Amino acid sequence: MLKDKFEARHADAAVRHFTRMVQDFQQREWEDANAKAGKFVEAVLKATWNETGKPVPTGKAFAAGNIMDLLAKETTLSTSLRLTIPRACRFIYEIASNRGARHDADEVTANEMDASAVTALCSWVLAEMVSHSQKGMDLDEAKAAVDGLMKRKYPFMEQIDGRVYWNIAKSAREAALLILYGIYPKRMSEESLARQVVRHGYSQKNADMGVNRIRTKVDNDDHGYLRLRNIGVQEAEDLISRAEKTKK
Description:
CATH architecture of the largest domain: Up-down Bundle
Number of domains: 2
Shape: elongated
Largest sheet: 3 strands, antiparallel
CATH class of the largest domain: Mainly Alpha
Order of helices and strands: HHHHHHEEHEHHEEH
Radius of gyration: 21 Å
Strand order of the largest sheet: 3-5-4
Structural class: mainly alpha
Number of strands: 5
Strand content: 5-15%
């Protein structure tokens, strides 16, 4: 979606660094996560500066702080690109630069609190860029798109032609829960979910029962389309965490 507005190479770089940052964060590699956040900021600033129509500095000529200062003077840009995103980027870059991620830090070290703040703000920046590239898409919709990037990737799950399979489900109920987690934050109809559960080796009767047994964990949009609630997401992640520990 970013490439509808921003130059492809900068958009791809931003998403790549964001995804790797999230992976490092999920593995509790705080310093590495902050370092990737710094690279994400650089890609975002290049994408944003390119919107001015002026050449994007390369190599040593590129200075993130200087670009942030110059963007504030580009009155042809939207307020979001000119001021809001650069201000958020400045905070992220400050953490990445001074907490041991980009330089040797003499007094402070990267920690979970730093990485949590940086990851959350990077998510907001990316959602803001998605909203801008989609001509004013509601920020909640943009955030949902970014949430998909933040969802953990697991060796227990595979996707084939849009169908989700989990090899750790021990019941039809668990299969239904994990399938919805695999497509989160999207919705799936009850009928489609039951068919997916059947593909996991359960009978139609058990599949229907499994879908029915997760009703307290999902939101139904009154048209039969289900989306996991937070308690459902938490239970799915608990199942995955237990499977990861067993695998080790």
